[in-house]
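User: For my dataset I need records formatted as: sequence, then structure tokens, nothing else. Please produce one.
Assistant:
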Amino acid sequence: MDDAPQDPESSRPRPKRGRPRIHPRETSDEGPPNQAEREASPDDVGEVRPKAKRSRDSEAQKSDQTLIEVIKGNGKQIPQVVKLWVEHYEKDPKPAMVELLTMLFEACGAKFYIKEELLDETDVDDVVVALVNLARKGEVEDYQSSKRKEFKNFKENLVSFWDNMVVESHSGPLFDKVLFDKCMDYIIALSCTPPRVYRQIASLMGLQLVTSFITVTKTLGTQRETTQRQLNAEKKKRVEGPRLESLNKRLSTTHEKIVVLEDMMRKIFTGLFVHRYRDIDPNIRISCIESLGVWILSYPSLFLQDLYLKYLGWTLNDKSAGVRKASILALQNLYDVDDNVPTLSLFTERFSNRMIELADDIDVSVAVCSIGLVKQLLRHQLLPDDDLGPLYDLLIDDPADIRRAIGELVYDHLIAQKFNSSQSGSRGNDNGSSEVHLSRMLQILREFSTDPILCIYVIDDVWEYMKAMKDWKCIISMLLDENPMVELTDDDATNLVRLLFASVQKAVGERIVPASDNRKQYYNKAQKEIFESNRRDVTIAMMKNYPLILRKFMADKAKVPSLVEIIIHTNLELYSLKRQEQNFKNVLQLMKEAFFKHGEKEALRSCVKAIKFCTTESQGELKDFACNILKNLEDELIAKLRSAMKESVDGDEYSLLVNLKRLYELQLSRAVPIESLYDDIVRNLHNFRNVDDEVVSFLLLNMYLHVAWTLQSIVTSETVCEAQLSSLLSKRNILFEELEYFLPTLSEEQRVSKYPNQLACRVCIILAEVWCLFRQTNFSSTKLERLGYCSDTSVVKRFWSLCEQQLKISVETEDEDLNREYIEETNRDAVMIAAAKLVATDTVSKESLAPEIISHFVMHGTSVAEIVKHLITVLKKKDDDISNIFLEALKRVWHEHLGGLIT
């Protein structure tokens, strides 16, 4: 794009041969700026503007304010000032014209004046050359971009001035072929000059003139139609007469005025718009496209044709997001009018692919607007469904605004089927039922059944628009097969359970898709009241049916986690108020049963979370019952563990592993009394070194959690006896011994076992956590000083050796483990966090471990690099000079590189 068209003479008249001399305002030695100035020099044009002479025949002319001062003001005087100016022009055109042109130049920021007696003979090109020279000298002020308070409304007032000028002149000066012809010549010429401020203001004025011309033209068009109807009626009465002659003359005059105005519009379009829509300044381009959209919408008889529409299509590819958005919004307004659609058919065929592509635009606001435009095309059935595939992929895109916009499109087009004419008529009522909408939603979710996270994204996108997702009774009825007309496959039932749980979460104000900024959500009082009302509705709908649903899907590990956690989002007080205590007890019994029926992380974690919620949020008798359920669950679990340990002697490790997982999930949320079981765990771990790696991991995890809970009880207790301290120290030391046993590098046989990396990761993480728990600084100068522990340097080296081994595991191996349980707890990120925590908390000396960690800065992907970067930030806050650490890190990287070259 160019700042201005290459040939300025193409859109303005050539200089006349005999030009009158215009007295100069000041002189300059500069040469002509371009070809348009070839016969002019700064000495030929311009003079210092004298104070305007005013007649004393009107109130406005008694004022000292010039037109530009009125525009710089608050704008209230503009209609009256314009009216008085038009009266002045009709009485004495030349001084009024000089005053208007002076305002036009001053609006562009240039002080320039044309003498009244030389007005008719002054050439536009000469004036423009002089104005360009003023700009080159820096003698121009930019009112539009000024931050000064008095220019705050300058742009709006300038637009208002020209709009009032056109409307006020419609009965005379507008059609004298002098006033506006001269104004347009100057505006078009200034819009094609290099100084950006001239182009900005000239474009603003020129575009507004067309808009105002359209306003007058539409009024004249209405008059023409009225006159035509009157003429037709009169012709039925008589063949000739003064009335017919008068009507014919009025019709002809009105038509001629419309033709004149349309010619004026075309003149500005070809002289200004065609050049400025591709201006280097994106703000000018935006103004052009916004104005063109208004013109086509308000005056389709002239502008609704491919000659003008193509510019909206071309600017869909503009490099500026603002221009692309302006074009899309203009098209949205056009497609909103049903009568425009047939005329837009060729344009749609040519540019529809680009409209779809813009739904994935790099600018979020452009993408959202484009999705709205695609919805309009679908409403008019201008797009085949096959073209929408790329759009549906955006349901799982990162920007939430785009996902919501696509969700609305999916709901309207695929679920409510608002754009499908075949769904109207007799099937209208059936089409709106919750069962139908939910069935269509399940059909969409089938595409994502293999990935629960993607299902949640889709549900989150559509939830706001789909009322059926809040029809709790309908969803429950479908899950219980109460409607014989709706048959669910197992995948459909799983997705419907996910939908129910996610919808309940959304209804009570919780996020189901994590926000990119991780900020906490805040709600006002009205929103909180809505959430509480939704919580009440969910609870009432679930009360009687909750036990039935749990019992039906008890054995299904895919459905149990979501079903069990629904109770967390209910109002437990209503069970007592509605006398549904027995249903509450049944739910708790079923949750306990589910806990012992399943051994997967998600199911166990959900059961623990739900039962704990019931023990803390219920009241009175229900709370006592929930606490008893939890106590019975703990007792039964300990008994099962004892039995499983005995069975493991004979080689049956499955029962032991499952119950160790259950104990681990329970200990994550509360202290479980396993003192009597601790020795059995140690004995089992110590005597059977060849047990499965995963069993060893959970034995160590449960030992660590028990030690951590014991330490917390001692630290928070007011009185501590010697026996408690001795017991804790004994358990801690045993845990250290067992962890240190696994520190040597794993053998090749272990490397190819079923869980090659899990045990090593667990050992590194647990050891780091225990070191941090018992570091000496936590207990120095306290009565618990005996609990302080300082790790041996050799052990730290072996610890880091095992950590480093996990960091070097290939990406392919790690990818194979992505679907494994607890992967987020046993990957390289977790290992690096554990090691960095030791340095950040001063558990080990930063000189010994920090260089090792930093040496792996950019070797293992973005996430590990971020962890190291955060550690460096922490170290810099503690110590201004860590150059030695960086130097040691570089040495380690160099030695590693040399070792790789040798091997």
